[in-house]
Structures are given as structure tokens and as C-alpha cells.
Specification:
The protein is of the alpha/beta class and about 425 residues long. It has three domains: about 5-105, Rossmann fold (3-Layer(aba) Sandwich), CATH 3.40.50.720; about 110-280, no CATH class; about 290-435, pyruvate-formate lyase- activating enzyme, CATH 3.80.30. It has 15 helices and 16 strands. It has helices at about 20-30, 65-70, 85-95, 115-120, 135-140, 155-175, 225, 235-245, 270-275, 295-300, 315-325, 330-340, 360-370, 395-410, 425-435; strands at about 15, 40, 60, 75-80, 110-115, 120-125, 130, 150, 190-195, 205, 255-260, 280-285, 305-310, 345-350, 380-385, 415-420. Helix 14 (about 395-410) links the parallel strand 15 (about 380-385) and strand 16 (about 415-420). Helix 13 runs parallel beside helix 14 (about 395-410) and helix 14 (about 395-410) crosses helix 15 (about 425-435). The structure holds S-adenosylmethionine and iron/sulfur cluster (SF4) (2 copies). One iron/sulfur cluster binds near residues 217, 219, 223 and 288. One iron/sulfur cluster binds near residues 141 and 187.
Length: about 425
């Protein structure tokens, strides 16, 4: 993971850069090995001068404050769950603060150019047929992307093919981005990326559903796409993880497992998948909360996992129309039960034209979020648009409703964020947030 424990004594004083989930892991790792870091640093000013974790006394400071307090008598461990962000921090420390690379304990070389975080960090065996790229790829140019055939090949061969495809795509983005099948995808961005093609680390392993677990809801914006590619093949998802572990390209400390793209509570292999928690991975569970799972509730109580629930409505009627089942009340009561575990939760609302794009639904949804926030562990309320729509200006009504949602969340003191297939411009951002 971080470094060989026998090297720890020569690390000297350590500042942990990043006060999120990964920061806590690093803190626990270092203290378990007898090293007490000086402080945390983070770019998020709302974390400054506070203890970011209830069970750890260290403060989080801005990097400037750390320098004023400790001079340059410390080394830095960057602890974030996304390599792209890690490279941005490296660049910022080296070029803005003139920190020497040698002081960054986990420094990796990077370059600046077109790239994509999905391509860089994720492996997503889709529908059990292929090992391929997913996320927005599912919505963008899916068929143009090279696929590693997992159906006819053993897992080892399929993984090699996947890694080779990835290398070719990365190189193409450097040499001729406009000829890449990724060209035009909303995930593509000008950023910092790893130069080491060989030293892969998957920060995210995302599993999707199997043929046998048709979802218990039929959301208009998802259901068709979700089952586009399902074929009846044996479940080799755990075998893939075993192989990734053998090759040391995943690690409990840095890899998150995402159970998404379908409904985990109806997946016939749900017990095996949820049991990956016992290996020590952080597990992000996407669920529609239509079925309450005691196992998930127990995981939430114990920490090291979270649920992300796409509710998408604030009234019974809209829920029934959009999601194809009449279970809004059940979902609300299940969410309240989950919230009582004290576990981390993100509640989502995908705004669909002429379906749920009205103030009544948004208000109802935010009131539900407020009820689920009774112990302040609602990490985020995320509004997004349908990602299958093109990368264009959002309709006026969408922008107006985002602004409305932002205002209402501020009244309740709830965290909120907004997603679109493109990055919001400064003007759009100002319109939504009034800042
Ligand atoms: C496919 S769902 C599976 C998880 C779970 N069944 C649920 O409904 O929350 C994973 C996530 O993808 C999002 N999603 C699916 N289709 C989408 C689309 N067309 N646009 C934006 N988000 C979408 C959903 O909101 C959900 O949060
Ligand atoms: S840029 Fe888009 S299409 Fe290409 S790998 Fe990333 S998410 Fe997939
Ligand atoms: S509940 Fe989730 S997986 Fe099922 S159709 Fe809706 S968004 Fe898709």
C-alpha cells in the first residue's frame, strides 16, 4: 500500500494531504505502525481548523498554515481516493508551493493532457459478459469502445486484453484525441494523468447486475439501457477480484468496490458480493431502497460503506409514473430505517424532462432528505440530468429547478451538488448557487 513498513522510520514527520475517507485510512495505518502525523491538509476550507474525524484529535489545516507551523520539516502523504485528484495535488504542491518531489512520499510521475478518470482508475465488468469500461461509457459511444471478451476467454486472458485496450486508448488520447472513440464524451477532460502504463492500480471495481437479477423497478431513464447487454453467463465477478488481488492491482486501502448498475438487493449473488466487505474494502452500494436489507443496514452501522439511492421523485404519483412501481412510501420508510444506522448516505434525483421537473416533487424529495438527515450523516444530495442527453446547454427549466433545489437545501442546511454531462460554466454555476 503506502510503503513498506520497514521504510516508515525514515519518513520523518508526516502531513496527510486529504481529509476524506482515505485520509482516515492513512491515519489509522500510520498510527498502527507507531507514527503520529502532524496534521491533515485539505483544499476544502470548510474542513479547516476542525477535527475531520470524531475518533482522531488531529486538526485539518490549509497547506499554507501547515507550512507556517512546521516550516519544511515534514513529508507529505497524499491520501485521496482518485488518482486524477492525486496528480492535481502533486502538481499544485510541486509547482505552486515548490515542494520537492522527494518530500511527497507517494509521488508518481504524471503528464497533462486529455484523459478520463474511468479509463485511468476503473475496471467495470459489465453484465458479466465483458470486462469493459462503463459509467458514462454506457451512455456514450458504448459500441465504439474496444471490449475485452470475457465470455469466450478465461478471466486471466480477458484481463490482459482489457489492460492492453486501455493502454491503446490512453496512447491514442495523447497522439490523436480527435480519432479516439472517447472524443466527445463528457468524461474526457484536460487534466493530469499517470505516465506509468505498466503500474496500474484500480481505485474502483464496479460490478453490475447479472441476467438473473432484472431490477424490481423500471425507471424510464435507465431500464432499457440496463438490460441491453445482458447475456446468461456464469458469474465470475469474485474470481476477477481474486485475480486483481493476486496481481496486486487493487488494494483494500485504496480500492472501492461499487455495487451498481442494477439492483443489488435482487441480485442472486448479493450475499457473496456484500461479503466482499469482510475483506476490508470500502463498499459503495447503489440501491433503489425498494427492499430493505438488514445486511446492508449492518454494514452501514459498522462504517466503511455507504448507500447511494436514486429516489427521483417527491410524490407518490410521480414515483409510480417514472419508476414503474407504486412503492414511494415503502422507499421513504426504508430510507428512514437506513438513516437510523448512522451510515453514510447519498440521495439522488435524476431530473427528467416532463416527468419530475417540477417544484412539488423537488420539495417533497428535499423534505424526505431532511427527515433522513436526523443524525447528520447525509453526505450529499445529488441532482443530475439524464446522462444520455447530449452535451448541450441545459433547458431553462432545469437550471431554474437546480437553483430552486439549491435554495431549499440551504434553508435546511443540507449538502447539495449538481451534475450535467458537461462541466458547468462559471455563469451557470453562479446562476444555480447565487455565489
Ligand atoms: C443504474 S443505477 C443502479 C442503482 C440502483 N438500482 C438505484 O436505482 O439507485 C446506478 C445509478 O445510475 C444512475 N443512472 C441510471 N441511468 C441514468 C441516466 N440515464 N442518467 C443519469 N443517471 C442515471 C441512477 O440514478 C443510479 O444512481
Ligand atoms: S472518455 Fe468516456 S468513453 Fe472514454 S473511457 Fe472515459 S468514460 Fe469511457
Ligand atoms: S431502480 Fe436503479 S437499476 Fe433499476 S431501473 Fe431504476 S435506476 Fe435502473
Amino acid at each position: 500500500m503506502f510503503t513498506n513498513p520497514k521504510d516508515l522510520p525514515r519518513m520523518g514527520n508526516i502531513v496527510i494531504y486529504g481529509a476524506g475517507n482515505m485520509g482516515l485510512y492513512t491515519y489509522k495505518y500510520l498510527t498502527a505502525n507507531g507514527l503520529m502525523p502532524l496534521c491533515f491538509c485539505d483544499e476544502d476550507t470548510s474542513k479547516h481548523h476542525k477535527q475531520p474525524y470524531y475518533d482522531c484529535d488531529l486538526l485539518c489545516l490549509s497547506f499554507n498554515e501547515a507550512v507556517s507551523k512546521y516550516g519544511d520539516d515534514f513529508n507529505i502523504y497524499i491520501s485521496v481516493d482518485n488518482m486524477v485528484v492525486k496528480f492535481e495535488i502533486e502538481d499544485y504542491l510541486v509547482n505552486t508551493y515548490k515542494v520537492s518531489k522527494g518530500r511527497i512520499i507517494n509521488f508518481d510521475d504524471y503528464y497533462r493532457g486529455w484523459g478520463c478518470s474511468v479509463l485511468e482508475n476503473q475496471i467495470c465488468p459489465f453484465s458479466n459478459t465483458y470486462i469493459d469500461f462503463r459509467c458514462q461509457c454506457r451512455f456514450y459511444n458504448y459500441f465504439a469502445l474496444p471490449k475485452a471478451d470475457w465470455k469466450n476467454n478465461d478471466t486471466e486472458t480477458a484481463l490482459d486484453e482489457f489492460i492492453s485496450n486501455r493502454r491503446v486508448l490512453k496512447q491514442q488520447l495523447i497522439d490523436e484525441p480527435e480519432k479516439s472513440p472517447c472524443y466527445g464524451c463528457s468524461r474526457l477532460c484536460d487534466g493530469y494523468w499517470s505516465t506509468s502504463n505498466g503500474a496500474i492500480h484500480f481505485d474502483i471495481v464496479a460490478y453490475s447486475t447479472t441476467k438473473n437479477s432484472l431490477c424490481n423497478m423500471k425507471c424510464k431513464y435507465c431500464y432499457g439501457l440496463l438490460h441491453l447487454n445482458n447475456t446468461n453467463v456464469e458469474d465470475r465477478r469474485i474470481e476477477l477480484l481474486d485475480l486483481l488481488e493476486q496481481r496486486e492491482v487493487v488494494s483494500v486501502e485504496k480500492t472501492q468496490i461499487i455495487l451498481s448498475d442494477g439492483e443489488i438487493t435482487v441480485d442472486p449473488h448479493r450475499d457473496e458480493l456484500l461479503a466482499l466487505y469482510n475483506r476490508g474494502y470500502y463498499i459503495c452500494i447503489f440501491t433503489n431502497a425498494g427492499i430493505f436489507s438488514q445486511k446492508i443496514a449492518d454494514m452501514l452501522s459498522n462504517g466503511n460503506s455507504e448507500i447511494l439511492v436514486s429516489v427521483d421523485a417527491g410524490t407518490k404519483e410521480t414515483f409510480r409514473r417514472l419508476k414503474g412501481v407504486d412503492t414511494f412510501d415503502k422507499v421513504c420508510s426504508n430510507l428512514l430505517k437506513y438513516s437510523k444506522t448512522g451510515g453514510t448516505t447519498e440521495l439522488k434525483y435524476v431530473l427528467i424532462d416532463n416527468e419530475n421537473d417540477n417544484e412539488d416533487d423537488i420539495r417533497g424529495f428535499i423534505e424526505l432528505c431532511q427527515k433522513c438527515n436526523n443524525i447528520n450523516l447525509l453526505r450529499d444530495i445529488r441532482f443530475s440530468v439524464d446522462f444520455t442527453r447530449s452535451r448541450e446547454m441545459l433547458p431553462e427549466n432545469t437550471m431554474r429547478l437546480f437553483r430552486y433545489a439549491n435554495k431549499l437545501c440551504a434553508v435546511y442546511g443540507l449538502p447539495v451538488s449538481f451534475n450535467a454531462p458537461h462541466e458547468f460554466s462559471a455563469v451557470e454555476h453562479k446562476y444555480i448557487t447565487n455565489k
